[in-house]
Amino acid sequence: MGEWSQFFEDFPEENPANYVGGVFNPQEAKKIRELQQKQETASRAATSEVNAMIAKAKKDTKARSLLLVEDCPQCGLKELNTYKISDKFYLCECQDCGIYGKGVNHEQALKHTSDAIGEFKDWREGSEF
User: Fold this and answer.
1) pTM for this model (two decimals)
2) 94-123 exposure pattern, b = at least 16 Cβ within 10 A, e = fewer
3) How does pLDDT run across 63-115, given as a tens digit for each residue?
């Protein structure tokens, strides 16, 4: 790696990053790279902000949609929260082991949760909601 850096320092016209539109212009190329870096940073910040807003909205929806808490089919603890997100969307999530399932009613969501035993599904790593 050191050899290439030294080479491009000695011969900047050989560095393809110093060309803009096929013309050797290291100052303009540097400006373009800096602008792209700023745009990427702004894009990452905006994406992060949107993801935070989505996470907050999901958390708020869950908070007001809690239907009941029951025994988890995987870990056996009374940590399985069932949420009624809408009339046709129920979600089961264990707060201890992380297993989850969804369905159009409570029974179906519970069955999908039970069927997921051994699949190592964890809603904290990415739920279906």
Assistant:
1) 0.65
2) beebbbbbbbeebeebbebbeebeeeebeb
3) 999 999 999 999 999 999 999 999 999 999 999 999 999 999 999 999 999 99
Instruction: Give the SS3 label for residue 68.
Output: strand
Q: Pick the closest to residue 122 from 104, 103, 85, 97 (CA basis).
A: 97
Name the residue ranges covered by the structural domains of the chain.
Answer: 2-55, 64-125
Token digits for 17?
């990053």
Three-state DSSP class for residue 82: strand
Cβ contact 44:37 at 8 Å: no
Span 41-71, pLDDT tens digits: 999 999 999 999 999 998 999 999 999 999 9
Buried b (16+ CB within 10 A) or exposed e, 37-49: eeeeeeeeeeeee
